[in-house]
Amino acid sequence: MKTSSGARKSIVVALLACCLGPLSMAPAMAERVKDLATLQGVRNNQLIGYGLVVGLDGTGDQTTQTPFTTQAIGNMLSQMGVNLTAEQAAKLQLKNVAAVMVTASLAPFAKPGQALDVTVSSMGNAKSLRGGTLLLTPLKGADGQIYGMAQGSVMVGGVSGGAGGASVTVNHLSAGRIPGGATVERAVATALGQGGFVYYELAESDFGTATNMVDAINRNMGAGTAQAIDGRRIALRAPESADARVSFLGRVENIEVRAATAQARVVVNPRTGSVVMNQRVSLQPCAVAHGNLSVVVDAGQAGGPGPDVQVKQDAGSLVSVKAGANLADVVKALNSLGANPMDLLAILQAMKAAGALRAELDVI
């Protein structure tokens, strides 16, 4: 079902206005340590390789425009005992072959023999990788060492047909996945801490959350177990033996911590017209004029209730918002006058520049 541009704009603003109220008043919920922080040194490692996908149904690279495909075929054949002259290699027409980049993520503690999922992406002008097979491809890390080998049939998503062939939907065909298509050949050493300590790093630097986490860990694991180093890192005294340390960390990561209230923030995406707020965002007295829209935030009478918001158009229509205004009230008022998301973005930026928007404004 198609949706008109005006309807989409109205939906975005309407959803924004309806959802912000409940979210702004929601209390902070307890979260587990594993949801707030990660163990220092325990991380994924990215792998990459260059390979060939064969068996395509005429949808591969046009070798006159992608000479690296021909060169790769020549190198592969020479390793298998088939030597081609430069003239012979130049005449190859390999519409059933595509040059691809293969990427994978090596999980922490992965050992040789374990399987990895890989992503295969065309780097030439192949029309589709559907039905192809990736040939044996070494996967290298940032240090140039081989950590895995990939091979298998490429699965391309986004292709579906209706009952009886009535309709076919085709999306992106130049990339695909091979579940379990790579085998780990070399492990990456992962150290659980240094000496008698392990270190947790918060996903977002926050002194309040760090303090709450230290208190929760010491309350459950014993006084002196944890100490905050700064607003992001927390040091924990851990057992020396590997088995005891693993058991200790398993208990720690499930401890519930009440995260501190995050800084007020408004995230704006100009490309999609979406605006997201993480909590109640307050406004200071200001007046903004944008096109035929005017937004006025009044300080209210002395000794009276909080600020009022008035939004009007040049034609004279006026919408008043009750006292105690916040940004959600402005969104609702603008929506009632039919303002589109781009109008809202411009007004937010003007409010922030004037110092009237009490929140961080991030444009992504």
From TrEMBL:
Keywords: Bacterial flagellum, Cell projection, Cilium, Flagellum, Signal. InterPro entries: Flag_FlgI. One of its GO terms (molecular function) is structural molecule activity. Residues 1-30 form the signal peptide. The keyword Transcription does not apply. It is found in: Bacterial flagellum basal body. It holds the Pfam family FlgI. The keyword Signal applies. GO terms for cellular component: bacterial-type flagellum basal body, distal rod, P ring; outer membrane-bounded periplasmic space. GO terms for biological process: bacterial-type flagellum-dependent cell motility. NCBIfam families: PRK05303.1. HAMAP family: FlgI. The basal body constitutes a major portion of the flagellar organelle and consists of four rings (L,P,S, and M) mounted on a central rod. Assembles around the rod to form the L-ring and probably protects the motor/basal body from shearing forces during rotation. Belongs to the FlgI family. This is Flagellar P-ring protein. It comes from Azonexus fungiphilus.
